[in-house]
């Protein structure tokens, strides 16, 4: 999987034109958006990056939003015929992260961004390996390379995405919580303000378990970031808040590959959007509230860190389902499942006797994260050929959720070997 994916990626670049692959996809894809935000910040016109127009198409009930200034800028990088805009729609303070790379031309910047994220992934491996004894049976390099046997990891780097940053924050937060360093953990979690939806699951648990030091830590980091933005990015914030109510509609734009979204929203939209957008929203809310309710039930029975084995599994469930809650969970974002996978690996000797299917479903998660979105795309193309409503089933969402549910069952009715073992680790 890894060899074929990387080989054909570089082949498509070599036989492509300029900075586009053979398939007309720009080098770095999503990094192009980050580079745009960083460049506009360096040129002191970041507020203009959010200037937009709406275009309504009769075949789509949702007006599509375009950013003409961004498109013009990206055409200077990719070429005058480039029309597949990669929009920078992050909060303005995130441009501070991308600005150092925007000092360079696009290709060197993308290479530098890639190495930066490769280093962060390695630091994530070191962080979690130092905390989970079973992983210490393997070398850091071997664990690091194993990460690339999970397709979303490869996809993340090919897209030039920021998931390694989020994974590193997750690992720091998990390790800090596990060692009773609540304030530090909350501070790390608050750094996800640039993608706050990915912090919802863990934040919900911290509030539920009244981890006040963690909550205060999160408030501190959020206050620092927002305070800086309010003082030094006032115009940019106003421009961002003007468009923010419409950003969710981007996921429903005709040009957007919704088949790659693996969240509860993506599952619902692919299944029900052709029938009713209201039905999609209702199902998304039901699945989200249902998952949070299950987390509430399981965590309500768990005493914080009294049994580390049980606590670890609870955190693995929280990370799994917390990801699905995030509306925009593209298949490269599933790279974040590496953390719950590492936690499960730590406790596999205790989990397997109780639930032998855990390895089967862990394998299915790996396969689904490789082929699931592509299978959904095929469903939609077949529906289109048969002139049927463009309805598809995102099986990846179902499989990831059920994997979490197997873990949920193991901690809500654990046998003696899980509840009483490995407390010291």
UniProtKB/TrEMBL annotation:
Keywords: Cell membrane, Membrane, Transferase, Transmembrane, Transmembrane helix. It is a multi-pass membrane protein. Coiled coil: none annotated. InterPro entries: GT87 (IPR018584). It holds the Pfam family GT87. The chain crosses the membrane at residues 106-129, 141-170, 185-207, 214-233, 279-299, 358-376, 388-408. The keyword Cell membrane applies. It is found in: Cell membrane. One of its GO terms (molecular function) is hexosyltransferase activity. The keyword Cell wall biogenesis/degradation does not apply. GO terms for cellular component: plasma membrane. Belongs to the glycosyltransferase 87 family. This is DUF2029 domain-containing protein.
């Amino acid at each position: 999987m890894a060899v074929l994916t990387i080989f054909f990626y570089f082949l498509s670049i070599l036989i492509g034109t300029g900075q586009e692959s053979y398939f007309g996809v720009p080098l770095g894809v999503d990094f192009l958006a980050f580079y745009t935000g960083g460049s506009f910040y360096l040129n002191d016109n970041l507020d203009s990056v959010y200037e937009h127009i709406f275009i309504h198409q009769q075949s789509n009930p949702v007006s599509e939003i375009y950013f003409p200034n961004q498109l013009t800028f990206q055409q200077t990088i990719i070429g005058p015929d480039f029309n597949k805009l990669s929009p920078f729609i992050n909060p303005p303070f995130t441009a501070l992260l991308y600005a150092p790379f925007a000092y360079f031309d696009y290709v060197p910047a993308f290479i530098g961004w890639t190495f930066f994220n490769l280093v962060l992934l390695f630091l994530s491996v070191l962080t979690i390996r130092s905390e989970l004894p079973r992983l210490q049976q393997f070398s850091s390099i071997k664990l690091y390379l194993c990460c690339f046997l999970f397709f979303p990891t490869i996809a993340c780097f090919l897209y030039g995405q920021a998931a390694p940053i989020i994974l590193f924050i997750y690992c720091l937060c998990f390790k800090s919580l596990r060692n009773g360093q609540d304030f530090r953990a909350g501070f790390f979690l608050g750094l996800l303000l640039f993608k706050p939806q990915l912090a919802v699951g863990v934040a919900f648990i911290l509030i539920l378990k009244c981890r006040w030091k963690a909550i205060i830590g999160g408030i501190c980091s959020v206050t620092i970031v927002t305070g800086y933005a309010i003082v030094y990015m006032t115009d940019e914030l106003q421009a961002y808040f003007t468009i923010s109510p419409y950003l969710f509609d981007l996921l429903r734009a005709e040009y957007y590959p919704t088949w790659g979204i693996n969240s509860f929203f993506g599952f619902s939209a692919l299944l029900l959007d052709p029938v009713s957008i209201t039905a999609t929203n209702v199902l998304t809310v039901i699945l989200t509230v249902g998952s949070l309710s299950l987390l509430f039930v399981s965590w309500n029975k768990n005493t914080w860190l009294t049994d580390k084995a049980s606590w670890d599994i609870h955190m693995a469930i929280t990370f799994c389902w917390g990801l699905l809650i995030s509306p925009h969970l593209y298949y490269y974002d599933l790279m974040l499942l590496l953390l719950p996978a590492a936690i499960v690996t730590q406790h596999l000797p205790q989990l397997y006797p109780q639930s032998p299917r855990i390895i089967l479903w862990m394998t299915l998660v790996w396969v689904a994260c490789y082929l699931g979105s592509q299978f959904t795309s095929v469903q939609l193309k077949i529906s289109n050929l048969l002139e049927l409503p463009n309805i598809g089933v995102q099986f990846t969402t179902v499989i990831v959720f059920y994997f979490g549910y197997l873990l949920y069952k193991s901690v809500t009715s654990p046998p003696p070997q899980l509840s009483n073992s490995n407390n010291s680790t």
